[in-house]
Amino acid sequence: MLSSGVRPPALSTAVRSLQRRSGGGVRDFQEIPHTGSNGWINLLRFWKDGRFSLLHKHMENTFRCLGPIYRESLGSQSSVNIMLPTDIGELFRSEGLHPRRMTLQPWATHRETRGHCKGVFLKNGTEWRADRLLLNKEVMVASAVRRFLPLLDDVAQDFCRSLRQRVETEGMGDTDQRSMTLDPSPELFRFALEASCHVLYGERIGLFSSSPSEESERFIWAVERMLATTPPLLYLPPRLLLALHAPLWTEHATAWDHIFSHAEARIQRGYQRLQTAVGGASDGRFLGVLGQLMEAGQLSSELIKANITELMAGGVDTTAVPLQFALFELARNPDVQEQMRAQVLSSWEQASGDPQKALQGAPLLKGAVKETLRLYPVGITVQRYPVRDIVLQNYHVPAGTLVQVCLYPLGRSPEVFEGPERFEPSRWAASGEGFRSLAFGFGSRQCVGRRIAENEMQLLLLHILRNFSLTVSSTEELNTKYTLILQPESPPRITFTTRSL
After folding, report:
1. What is the DSSP letter of 53?
2. pLDDT of residue 7
């Protein structure tokens, strides 16, 4: 998408400079292949053909037809789409000190109309950078990871104990090898919410009990509705829909209201816990990211609320859904599963219960997460607005143009990956990723919850491999759909068979 008022110059000084650097062969922006110049007609076709739910497949097919770069206009939005690492590297080098990505306007409009502050996800410029640097200290740096890793490990182990008890009670087979086939997605959503709450708020909410709270179930529902209603709202003016009381906007805003009310209740409890601590201090105990931010006192309470809410809303589906895909791929690739299990068991024994050492000794876990996100990226694009004119695929792209890196075609391209259809965690053992693993973005604007999500997924896979063998009745490819995140059309059913510990 082009930012407001940007017009590709015909033959500017910048273009002539680029031509000199590349030997004079740079082609004009307007020559980039495109899917149709009228954005509104394109948008109508998208709706008519139901392409929004298959946007990742549309991108893959369009690259196949038009080549490794193309322009697309949808409604009021226009973008240049790319998929090759060389072009991604050039884009990254031109992102500037304050990288910008496409603003999710429906989310921003909700904040503005409800009077909420915006977190770093919706901010840009110096204000974004100042807040982001403060958040990094609590969620991204190595010392922060060491603080919250034991909390994630506790939740992962409790999840596996709960699932094991269910399989042993309700499953079939011998006493020491019980089996049960189920759709694990409801349990995985509860795991992701329990883990997020434990890290962000420093408290457990008991979602592995036989009767999880209605409040938590409502939060999961609200996140799913928020994600599902976002894509169609991206290409229409939200304030017009708001004025018209459009049902789609009402559903979207109501979902966000539920998310904020859930976060507000948790945050209030967090404030009360901190205030009742002796002298208001933590005595060295980890109080969750919320407590750390409150103790630091560098962000206002409203900014803390905004960022914690964004982390909560972005931390459930975006880990629960990749875990569905990861378990499916492990189940249909038994050789990979056994290779990973052998490494996990050896590492766990040597680590003596230290989760950090256990993960360090089992690099295939990290490879499995990368491999899952290569094949099934949660968000299907990473966007940037270059701060200077650049050349992509020998086409001039002006500063201020929205450029989208399309992750689904990237991850499945035989030009980028050898045997891209194969699930091979070991392919990531070699050093240097060269802009091929981008599910969490890149640079200073990469996903702020990345370290939480990566470790959360790795620890759950570690304990599942210790406790269970996984199989599936069919090894056919999963059909996928896009609802702001990529997910299975139907959740896979997986057979969990208990293993001796």
Report:
1. G
2. 40
